[in-house]
Amino acid sequence: MAMGRTADISRAGTIYAALLLLFAGLAFTNVALGEFQYLPVTFFRSQDFPVLAMVTALFLIVRVARVPNGLVAGMDTLFGRMKLLPVWAPVLFIFTLALLGALGILGSYPLSMDEYWARADGYALASGRAMAEIPADLRDYAGAMHPIFARISGDGLYWASTYLPVNALFQGLLGPLASPLFAAGAAALLVQVVRQHLPEAKTAPIICPVLAATSAQWVITGMTSFAMSAHLFVNLAWLALVFRKGPAVQIAAGLVAFLAVGLHQFAFFPVFAAFFILELFLSGRRGVAVGQGVIVLVAVAFWVSWNSIAYKLVGSVPPVAGSASNPSLTEKVIVLLTRNDLTAIGTMGLNLLRFQLWQNPLLLPLFALAVPVAWKLKGFWRGCLLSALATLAFMAVVIPYQGHGWGYRYLHHVLGNVILLAALGWSRLRMSESRATRASFAAAALIALALIPYRYVQAHDFAQPWQQADRAIAKVDAEVVIVDAPDHLFADDLVRNLPEDRPGPVRMAHAALTDAQVADLCSRFRVATFGSADAEAAGLPSIGYRGDGDNAQNACAPEGTDQAED
After folding, report:
1. Do 122 and 169 contact (CB within 8 A), yes or no?
2. What's phi and psi for 84, nearest 5 deg?
3. pTM (two decimals)
């Protein structure tokens, strides 16, 4: 029997290696196609390959060399102490690290436009406004002042993002506490859910939060204003409620579901929840299933109409239907379903490889070992599995390109599913009965913990050039700065003008301005240009759109070279 238990952890190592090879194989399909997307490849080369090399080396050492008995005994002892930890310890660990990061660069400078808009919309929502007001003297330039993910009212008086508002509201109300609270709260909810559905497993309530606390993706995403930590929290909160009995609990679950749909993108929660609702129906709880299904549909209908509601709340009107700033839902769906090609396969390969390398090394092998167990158990556990797989399929078809993300953020909201299933595999396969398996879990936790500060440094170093560029623009002695560095990565992301009282000049994207608008700006304001040389000085990566790397001259001085300076 002991040999069989030892074989289990050996099988976990084989599964880990097989998954790496599978994901790498998918990624290399883009080599055959000769097509690459800059950001996924950059993340792999600069962040994930070093971790992959380290993990591979450790795997080969363990396979070839004999692990000293003393080391195995030490790790087994560590597991015993880990098992005695109070469940609040890893939860507090997550909150502390996430908050420290939120007070650092990942929180103080929202790198992606998703993070920026969560903050920008949050300022307006927390002050009681559904949309922010556009400065009266610059309304003709609103499109250039927010060229990415913005929607502008039909009368040109208000602007907001194209995202739904619930995450932004929490970001505005709670500030840097929001995402750390969501990340830590989600870990606490894991404990409640696993106790509810796996009550006989004595170690599961600590296995789950330890797997969360040793996930660099879980912790570092909790430092940002991305909506993913909020998605993860509300998904687990809904699971903690919806399988319980009683009308009050079901009403609470319905309220959570309603908020979940409105967090960020309306499709995330319905895809997550669909198979759980189906399993409730199949298990005989048809009233609950129908009730929750209706609530989700009503929530989708409401949040799809949010833009129209927001315009009414501020006393404005929507843009012309079907225009570039107000596409219909049908047009959005068609774009999402038709914009991808075969390169999406390689992109998803890189995404999944990145996802695996940002987790505890044992997480995905334990998840894979739990798949047949979950399928046989049906009910909650089969729903957990199908929910995760449905989300993966949805993302692969609709939005394989994640842009920025610490790990693969489009699977972040089902990371709870994956951890719960890993705990199921650990429990039902009785892995805690083997010393080798217990020692391997402790060793994997130590390795994953050691990687968290390394991953934080990677994220910090990647974000730093844009923060430096942002600070440089804020210091320019001008009333307007025109950003014109198209040969540098995400230079237009530096065009940010909310909140209204932020220091520094107004920023505009040169690509969104006409010559007549530039001339008008020059006649009314002191204008400077943030060009390629400035972007280069800040450290923004060059992507060579122009090819010659020449710097843009000052928009108001055809013969001059005045630029933004530190």
Report:
1. yes
2. -90, -5
3. 0.93
